[in-house]
């Protein structure tokens, strides 16, 4: 856990002549791939959104200005998918945070069974997302699944129009718990123990102690992890791809899935890039509002 | 302004990085005069996989210089896979697909025009109406070789009990007769009909041809547009009426694939199931002993019109293949009448070739073969097949719209609005 | 004392009990899908087809594993995954280590931009990157090849690797390096004899973690690899879910289990270090 303290140290004196030149040499091997395969494609992708790039080589790619974005505006399916994406991202992020917080607090207590819980809470992190999806498909299976057997129902969870999205959201929550829990556990280590005891001596109840001592201490971590979770969830792909592939009737078609199909099934590269741009823009705006709101709350 | 530069710049940069990684990888043919062709087959039933592999072995034994490697593809992912492979220059030489999936690849310039590559024998053997399914503009981009009409699998016992006229290929039911029969067979725990419409679009569009439904129309400027008028609405209304009004069709099967309905069919829960001709194989394999079933032709339209849309399976050659002539020779070998019969039997489908279709083993009354072969001359190219953007229209717009319409969630007005208005927006993107 | 004082132990016991109940709920929620996967993998086909599946297989069998290998080229896929993940992990770590050193020890405009990128890339819109990436790799004829995938994985694993490694470098006391320099050791000597040994465990952890993320990765592999013989484990797993969504449940579960094992084992090794790395990042934020 020595790492926890490491970033606190102010490293680095300002670079001076010859040593700064050495910096280039160290940075270069990583910088080239980053520039070529990450920053470059990002810019290229933004440029693509203004073209009619398609698969096939018979038609040359042309600049078409904002035409893709105009089409997107009228594309009711895309906005429906966007709505699904937001419902999914919020529906996963919020309960995930609440549950992870609860678990982290419990794990912080001196309970028996803490060890298996800790191990179990980490396992989903190590599993391939595809396997998580497959596993839950087995659970939800209408005939051979354990869920219907336990509840005594015969519901086609992933195939029903009304149950598919909630069912998928539940899997999202399960799969993302570990990262959130671990981050919050880390945050909990910042909680000053003396303050807690002092508050307890003052007769403060559990809730008061949490609100007055624990929450302020883990707030920055909570903020960061929930924002990150939101982005990750909004961009998630593999889980839903295995669970429902966007079905039934597009009710779980996340925007990522939509853009993937547009690009790599139908070959509409330009149009798909435009979707990507819109997704990024909307998420950026939402996050900015969220973080700004929270930070303002801090200053009060 | 063109954006050609952009990829070039990044490509150059990325190449530097690739060199650092150990060099750009490239596939090379060994230069010993022997060539290897990759044949990607989508055969999936054990029987037909076996026959395909055996044909490849026979070819390889006879042609040591032109080896063919069998590659297994799958129907669910073939479109995505081919798109990526074409783009990446990794496509197989000989490609198995269906005629309604070819348009985007043809317009993308990825498939070779076979007009000059194919021998006269093959051209003459397959009738023009079948060739039309794979003709785009002036070129032919695939050899249609297997096709299946949609037929009605019926429980003969229940059919007799209901006392309805039993149709045959010459005297099919009209749609109202079919509705009446379904109503008569609906009693107790039995539904007259089960429509497995997990993939409702091609079923609906192909059956609609009997009522004159076309859905896709070409304007004077050559651009395709969707319409959904009275003739197109005829068959969808029948299906929905059966589900929602008459309750002679089971609602739960709407979200099922064909195979999922078979247990219910065997158990007497469904008296009739409209399915592709090839499902006979699964029925033969899985039906409990003593189960008495029969194959009925699909209903005819108001004017007695019996035609039905069909998208035959095709074999194409990749434009990028350096050995197109050899690939065409292999296709010719695969589709010799005797081999075509074997393929057809393996897939329980109808061959397109006239000689193969006349083969006695495909004309017996057993397992409904005779009924199917009698329908062959009524099969017409599905109008959708040559339309660019049809796959996207089908998956994104038509599939959910039809599903919701059949289940009663939306009405005809909304169905039409989605198919036409949203649909034409999609098509417009492909036809700028 | 006050009545409050007498009430406390009872209340505390109630709280404790509540906590145990809650923990138990968590345990069930976290464990039951895993248990079901395990149970399905060892069930014979007849039990799987039964309308009332039980929790435990009545006649446990390994048939599903054998069948899984028969149905799909699992061995090939595992080998592909291993190649891709191992090369990506090694290359990413080799490239990242010098940069992490620079990030931890120096502060120039470049290193600050790089640190910024590390943070931003956590929120990276992959959908916007994958299309151009695909087109670039296509230009290089690297689509549908493992080297192409490795290149993508390297870049994809870099941010977290940098993040972790920077933390490890900072944890190496600067004074040690300075002392060595005072003793007359050259810069290279200092790095190899002082810094490197202290950094070694961190580097190993980074390699392992990069390996796990690459092994588990699905999206890029799905887009870039299309030839049946080249696909990686997660992509091949999806082939078990066949036509019309009908899956052969037993072999599916068995294959899924096998695909998870390597990640799980390695994760057990690096778990503490990763949670540590995460912690460092979280505190930093």
How are the secondary structure elements laid out?
The complex is a heterotrimer of chains A (about 300), B (about 425) and C (about 280).
Chain A: H1 17-48, H2 67-74, H3 76-108, H4 114-126, H5 129-140, H6 146-151, H7 164-188, H8 193-201, H9 206-234, H10 238-243, H11 255-264, H12 269-299
Helix pairs in contact in A: 1-12, 3-7, 3-9, 4-7, 7-9, 8-9, 9-12, 11-12
Chain B: H1 5-20, E1 35-41, H2 46-62, E2 66-72, H3 78-88, E3 94-98, H4 103-107, H5 120-125, H6 128-131, E4 135-136, E5 139-140, E6 143-147, E7 150-155, H7 156-162, H8 175-185, E8 191-193, H9 200-208, E9 216-218, E10 224-226, H10 230-245, H11 262-266, E11 270-276, H12 280-286, E12 293-297, E13 308-310, E14 313-317, H13 324-334, H14 337-347, E15 350-351, H15 354-357, H16 369-375, E16 379-381, H17 390-406, H18 412-430
Helix pairs in contact in B: 2-14, 9-10, 17-18
Chain C: H1 3-41, H2 45-49, H3 63-71, H4 74-105, H5 109-122, H6 126-139, H7 146-171, H8 174-182, H9 187-216, H10 219-224, H11 233-239, H12 249-284
Helix pairs in contact in C: 1-12, 3-12, 4-7, 4-9, 5-7, 7-9, 8-9, 9-12
Task: Give an overview of the whole structure.
- By secondary structure, chain A is mainly alpha-helical.
- Helix content of chain A is 71%, strand content 0%.
- The radius of gyration of chain A is 24 Å and the shape is globular.
- The two termini of chain A are 33 Å apart.
- Mean pLDDT of chain A is 84; it is low at 1-20.
- Chain B is of the alpha/beta class.
- Chain B has two domains: 29-147 and 311-382, 3-Layer(aba) Sandwich (D-Maltodextrin-Binding Protein, domain 2), CATH 3.40.190.10; 150-310 and 384-430, Periplasmic binding protein-like II (D-Maltodextrin-Binding Protein, domain 2).
- Chain B has helices at residues 5-20, 46-62, 78-88, 103-107, 120-125, 128-131, 156-162, 175-185, 200-208, 230-245, 262-266, 280-286, 324-334, 337-347, 354-357, 369-375, 390-406, 412-430; strands at 35-41, 66-72, 94-98, 135-136, 139-140, 143-147, 150-155, 191-193, 216-218, 224-226, 270-276, 293-297, 308-310, 313-317, 350-351, 379-381.
- Chain B has a six-stranded mixed beta sheet. In chain B, strands 8-11-7-12 form a four-stranded mixed beta sheet. Chain B has a two-stranded antiparallel ribbon with strand order 4-5.
- Residues 19-30 of chain B have low confidence and may be disordered.
- By secondary structure, chain C is mainly alpha-helical.
- Chain C folds into two domains: 3-41; 65-284, Orthogonal Bundle (MetI-like fold), CATH 1.10.3720.10.
- Chain C contains twelve helices and no strands.
- Chain C has helices spanning 3-41, 45-49, 63-71, 74-105, 109-122, 126-139, 146-171, 174-182, 187-216, 219-224, 233-239, 249-284.
- Chain C is globular, with a radius of gyration of 25 Å.
- Chain C starts with a helix and ends with a helix.
- Classes of the chains: A mainly alpha (300), B alpha/beta (432), C mainly alpha (285).
- The interface between A and C is large, with 111 and 106 residues.
